[in-house]
Amino acid sequence: MGSFKKVGIGLGTLLVASAISLTGASAAGNLVPLMTSNTSPAGTASASSEWAFHEAYKAFDHDYSTYYSTSSGSSGYLQYSFGTSKIVRSYRLTTSSQPQANAPKTWTLQGSSNGGSWVVLSSQSGLYYPGSSYYFNLSSTGSYDSYRLVITANNGAYSTSVGELELYE
């Protein structure tokens, strides 16, 4: 997925992923702009709760080395509102580098045009590994201005974290 550099350490060798090439790869085709805050440069990133320094926009900043985290709990939601309707046909969830216990285990991706009623577009459950990306095609699509990832369980940690949520047309 990215380029790797060999770094010598004593008698062994360590493979280190290049963050620059990973960052560039995540941005191609993603409908969500590179967010620098919950409201910049466009749209709005929000969540049911946020851990300090791991705000909602960190899941939309096109950078795999940062992540969003709930302030507590194994469930919650992570949302992006475009401000205008978009059709999302697929998405990619990248787990954070936090321990596997913090990774989402079950979730739905939902869409809304009014923020009050939500339509389930995808339901997932399983074992998801730290620092890994998972790509999903949507069998049901529509035109919505807001999309949210509703996490109903993680793998047992006090909080849940997401590295990146990318939405594709």
TrEMBL record:
InterPro entries: FA58C, Galactose-bd-like_sf. Transmembrane segments: none annotated. Residues 1-27 form the signal peptide. Residues 45-156 form the F5/8 type C domain. Keywords: Signal. This is F5/8 type C domain-containing protein. It comes from Paenibacillus borealis. The lineage of its organism: Bacteria, Bacillati, Bacillota, Bacilli, Bacillales.
